Amino acid sequence: MNLDNQQLVGLYRRMLLIRRFEEKLHDLFLGGEVAGTCHLCIGQEAAAVGVAAALEPGDWMNGTHRGHGHFLAKGGDPKLMMAEIFGRESGYSRGRGGSQHMACFAIGFLGSNGITGGGIPTATGAALALKQRNDPHVVVGMMGDGAANQGVFHECLNMAVIWQLPILYVCENNLYAMSTALADSCAVRHVADRVRGFGVVTKVVDGNDVLAVADAVSEAGRRARAGKGPAFIECLTYRFCGHSRGDPCVYRTRDEENGWKARCPIAIFGRKLVSDGVLTADDLARIDVEVTAEIAAAEAFARSAPVADVNALTDDVFQAEGGD
Question: Which of 22, 66, 86, 214 could pair covalently with 39 via S-S, beta carbons 3.0-4.6 A apart?
Answer without folding.
Answer: 66
